[in-house]
């Protein structure tokens, strides 16, 4: 299955994508994680990436498209993938279609996470991440076992730099302008499904599983 997860910042895409990918036995490909890793390098490219991400702007397509194109051509993605955070614009969606067409493949499903504005604020203001392994927590809904330390490697958890109030507002604007048009695109193609992303992570996962199953080729 080739699935893309769409939704506003903080909708819970990353939290659910990892689990769905493990269930389907396909890689979880998260452009935000890949770009953050590259941005952490003290190189001209790293600094360039930081400047976009810290402001909540999209990284230019020439950088993102090449990263995704290279990743989905790896052998482990031949049988499918969960794309989280890509495409984020109509141009990126076209690029994805072209890359898949070159492999004789196409997208099976686009799943939109439906969540309200106040819930987004709650989720992002309480999010903590491990700077080493990228695992995601929440102060209230998904706290680490030991206060503010990563369950996996004990590293002190941090707030993501782009989770500041000002940057979140810009990310939401960019989402509205650049990413929302994808709903029409995939809706017209008949591959869009919506998932109510409010509720416990378990409830959302059950809904996601049903939506993903509805896109399976019979
Ligand atoms: P990216 O990392 O993709 O950020 P995003 O899309 O804004 O999404 P988030 O990671 O903020 O949220 P999420 O939906 O994954 O939620 P999560 O599961 O963490 O992108 C960052 C930046 O990279 C972009 O701004 C851009 O600059 C650049 N970039 C990335 N892709 C790009 C592209 N294609 N083109 C150009 N630039 C690109 O959950 C959030 C919180 O809620 C967590 O604390 C979690 O524990 C909690 N939570 C999750 N589910 C629930 C639930 N059901 N109930 C309660 N709490 C929950």
Your description of this structure?
The protein has 218 residues and is an alpha/beta fold. Helices cover 48% and strands 13% of the residues. The protein is built from 9 helices and 7 strands; from the N terminus they run E-H-E-H-H-H-E-H-E-H-E-E-H-H-E-H. It has a 5-stranded parallel sheet with strand order 2-3-1-4-7, sandwiched between helices. Strands 5-6 form a two-stranded antiparallel ribbon. The longest helix has 15 residues, at 165-179. The model has no long low-confidence stretch (mean pLDDT 94). BIS(adenosine)-5'-pentaphosphate (AP5) binds next to helix 1, helix 2, helix 3, strand 6 and helix 9. Residues 7, 9-15, 31-32, 35, 52-53, 56-59, 64, 85-86, 88, 92, 123, 126-127, 136-138, 141-142, 162, 171, 199-201, 204 line the site of BIS(adenosine)-5'-pentaphosphate.
Topology, element by element:
Elements (H helix, E strand, L loop, with lengths): L1 E5 L6 H12 L3 E3 H9 L4 H12 L5 H12 L8 E4 L5 H13 L6 E6 L2 H9 L1 E3 L6 E3 L26 H15 L1 H9 L2 E5 L4 H13 L5
Parallel strand pairs: 1-3, 1-4, 2-3, 4-7
Antiparallel strand pairs: 5-6
Helix pairs in contact: 1-9, 2-3, 4-5
The site of BIS(adenosine)-5'-pentaphosphate has 36 residues, from helix 1, helix 2, helix 3, strand 6 and helix 9.
